[in-house]
Amino acid sequence: MLLKKNNSLDCILVGSKKVNEKKFINEDNESFEELASLAYTLGLKVVDTILLPIRRISSSIYYGKGQIESLKNKASLVNAKIIVFNDEITPAQYKNLQKILEKKSIFDRTGIILEIFKNNAKTKESKYQVELATLQYMLPRLTRFWTHLERQMGGTGTRGGPGEKQIEIDRRLISSKISKLKKDLEKIRKNRHIQASSRKNIFRVSLVGYTNAGKSSLLNSLSKPNTSYVQDKLFATLDTTTRKIENSRKNKEFLLTDTVGLIRDLPHNLVASFRSTFEEVKESDLILTVVDSSNDIKIISNHIQTIESTLDSMSINAKNNFLVFNKVDKGFENEKIKYLNKKYPNSIMVSAKDYVRLDVLLDKIHDVVKEKFIIEELTLSYDKFSIINQIYSRLEVISRKDSFKNIKIKVSGSPQLINKIKLEIEEKNG
Ligand SMILES: Nc1nc2c(ncn2[C@@H]2O[C@H](COP(=O)(O)OP(=O)(O)OP(=O)(O)O)[C@@H](O)[C@H]2O)c(=O)[nH]1
Ligand SMILES: [Mg+2]
Questions:
Q1: Domain range holding 24?
Q2: Are 182 and 231 members of one domain?
Q3: Which of 53, 299, 379, 425 has its CA at a distance of 20 to 30 angstroms from the CA of residue 234?
Q4: Are residues 224 and 179 in the same domain?
């Protein structure tokens, strides 16, 4: 929304180069590249990138005054109306920078991520979640340049130049909108909970992972019909999609859920807003972390750590978890395979795009499903051939004893399915 104000989407990326710390410079390049893909995802055109040396962070404008002045000149020179800071800018710094940089739109990494989420939200729930996070982010940063607010909030009735008074009105409007959104989201969350509990009797698997790792592609490839939204852009998916993965193998169907992608330092407002989405992950029986294996080893390890710590922060215990290294079709070297296998023994390499080793992945999932199997003996009288057929097609039959009165069948399967079949037998009996 803020972007529409500018006709040009040309932007300058600004990062920090800490002096005297060589290690930091490397890391910074990596996060800088990530910022460039975030900007690209948002549809911005990066016309220049600047790494500013920084010795000490200024609490008022983050960088030095001279640095910001020359940044302003540079932006005017290349006619860039948008300036994107890689580092997190506090509300106070934001306001001061906005004063110096005048009519240029300022974003930090969090602001960019919020804009992307805003563009990609499709369902009511994700729209509300993103709006809530955005308003919470905006509230302390309100300056007279947030004029788009007037339109967004449905007009505030003032036509005069937006000044302090206008900001006060906006602030109150935002606060009341925030509480309304929270209430609405709570209602949606309760509803989601009811839906989720109706799925209790089937094994549930969730896909989590860094944005762009290929979670939606994997869901598509495992479930065939290509309807999950796949894009080479960050945060393509904001809504959870669940599909039943049926299989010729007996009693081994499961539900597979695709989730919103994660990223390093995901804005905490967003994490909080999407918490209910992750409740579904929390309740699943198996969590698979999908990793883009075409990245450098160091980036791979950073991504895995990000996923672990984000799940941790939501108290999600990735029990039985294993890693799925995706995109192995993309120039995979033997050395890398060896290294990853050694470092992450509980993992599997696949390609969602080329359907490579998806059968091995399914086997691995089925092994976990199977761990929950129980063994029971069912007793049937002879008039229940339809149930006998079901038993053979859906459960594993260990032994069978036919007598003149009935048939005793020892089966192995998920407790849920065995119970379901037992109920059917009772119904038939009754
Ligand atoms: N080469 C290759 N590309 C893949 C593979 N799987 C996914 N991709 C590509 O990677 C990009 C991201 O895929 P998505 O499935 O949208 O990734 P995601 O994890 O759902 O991303 P978010 O929804 O943004 O979190 C797309 O361009 C896919 O075509 C794969 O196995 N090999
Ligand atoms: Mg996706």
A1: 3-117
A2: no
A3: 53
A4: no
- The pLDDT of residue 154: 45
Report whether pLDDT(327) > 90: yes
What distance in Å separates the CA atoms of residue 412 and residue 373, rounded to the nearest whole number? 6
pLDDT at 162 over 80: no
Give me the number of domains the chain comprises. 4
Residues 55 and 104 grouped into a single domain: yes
Residues with CB under 6 A from ligand 1: 209, 211-217, 230-232, 234-237, 261, 326-327, 329-330, 351-353
In the structure encoding, which two tokens stand for residue 389, read together?
A: 């057929």
Q: Which atom of ligand 1 is nearest to the CA of 356?
A: 31
If you average pLDDT over every residue of the chain, what do you get?
83
Q: Measuring from atom 27 of ligand 1, which residue has the nearest CA?
A: 232
Cα(223) to ligand 1 centroid in Å equals 15
Ligand 1 atom nearest the C-alpha of 258 is 20
pTM of the model: 0.81
Residues 145 and 91 in one domain: no
Has residue 138 got a pLDDT over 80? yes
Q: Pick left, alpha or beta for residue 203 (phi over 0 → left; psi -120 to 50 → alpha; otherwise beta).
A: beta
Backbone angles phi, psi at 114, to 5 degrees: -60, -40
pLDDT of residue 230: 61
